[in-house]
Amino acid sequence: MAGSLLTTSAILAGNEAEPRDLGQFGNWNSGGVERIKDLATIAGVRDNQLIGYGLVVGLDGTGDQTTQAPFSTQSLKNMLNQLGVTLPEGVNPQTKNMAAVMITADLPPFAKPGQRMDITVSSLGNSKSLRGGTLLMTPLKGADGQVYAIAQGNLTVGGFGAGGADGSRITVNVPSVGRIPNGATVEREVPTSFNQGSHLTLNLRRPDFTTAYRMADTINASFGEELAQALDGSSVQVRAPVNPNQRVTFVSMLENLTLEAAEPPARVVINARTGTIVMGAGVTVRPAAISHGNLTVTISEDPAVSQPGAFAGGQTAVVPQSDVEIAQEQNRMFLFAPGTALGDIVEAVNEVGAAPGDLVAILEALREAGALRAELVVI
């Protein structure tokens, strides 16, 4: 029936005769902060990684150098032998238009035999470019060793390179990696636990006890029954219908409910390699006084030439002459009052003129002094 859905009790009981308007669900697309779809995933509904080894042919002289990548020649011999072509003993083809590659793909949940998916093809040997190549039929296997898809097709490569006779070369992007849209056909379905049992488990993308509690409370308040219970800070268990069609309908209703997720913990994240510093909104400091200055020592060498008089009988010599200077920045001390918020911290640090490296030192000192009310994470 257009514009209506079944009540929860009707769905769970297997009765399809009681429609209920969407407007009766309090949190149905009510403009809340986030949907359950964005906050959690359903246990058992996941991607599966596939991998395969194959050959790319048709390259314009940019394939593997078979003397340095003998596995390419071995693969070619095995493939020709399966196709009924037997090479004489001791013959090693020196092909430059072929490359050994690894194929990777993500098999989406509920993928059925005959459906297509994208694949990524990466050079395994020393091929300079896969541009213009064609991937030969390659089985893609899962972690259990079973074949779940077959890959084949023409590559699209975003990078390219050009070189001169003197050895100079320029490369744009990465020409040794390419993709084949819809390049694999699913051959085997991965069984899932979605239609098994009388319950579904929602796993939070970011575990939080408050979010788990609010999610269970929102589900129960929206459907008017005690369907959900929080198992821990990461999982919420929901009672669901057994009939597959009704379960899909129920999940469609469930994942569009909205709720206000809990605020993340106060945290300061520092990337030590790039100097990037990110502070969460809940970062505060206890009372603290900070003074930060830089001491710079500069030593310069300015050799001087000692030239004796015309009749002095001496020799010309180079006399070392050092100039040592010490400069210290006279930065003022600034005070953080109790409960100073993030904006005040940034403003105070900007007034001092501290660089990212100096800011890291200030934050570490605040943490050691017990004044930083946040977790300091270095990545």
Describe the structure.
With 379 residues, the chain is α+β, with helices and mostly antiparallel strands. Helix content is 20%, strand content 35%. It is built from seven helices and 27 strands. The protein has helices at 8-13, 36-39, 70-82, 209-223, 244-255, 342-352, 356-368; strands at residues 4-6, 19-21, 34-35, 40-42, 48-57, 98-107, 116-123, 134-141, 147-154, 160-163, 169-172, 177-186, 199-204, 228-230, 235-239, 258-259, 267-271, 276-279, 284-285, 288-290, 295-301, 304-306, 317-319, 322-328, 334-336, 372-373, 375-378. The strands form ten sheets. It has a six-stranded antiparallel beta barrel with strand order 5-6-7-12-9-8. A four-stranded antiparallel sheet has the order 4-13-15-14. Strands 18-17-27 form a three-stranded mixed sheet, with helices on one face. The chain is flat. It starts with a strand and ends with a strand. 23% of the residues are buried.
Question: How much is the radius of gyration in Å?
Answer: 34 Å
Structural class: alpha+beta
Distance between the termini: 53 Å
Number of strands: 27
**Lateral strand order in the biggest sheet:** 5-6-7-12-9-8
Proportion of residues in β-strands: 25-35%
Mean pLDDT reading: 80
Share of helix among residues?
Answer: 10-25%
Count helical runs: 7
The largest β sheet comes out as:
6 strands, antiparallel, barrel
Contiguous low-pLDDT stretches (5 residues minimum) are 1-6, 15-32
Approximate shape: flat
Which characteristics define this entry?
20% helix, single chain, disordered N terminus, flat, alpha+beta, 35% strand, 379 residues, six-stranded antiparallel β-barrel, four-stranded antiparallel sheet
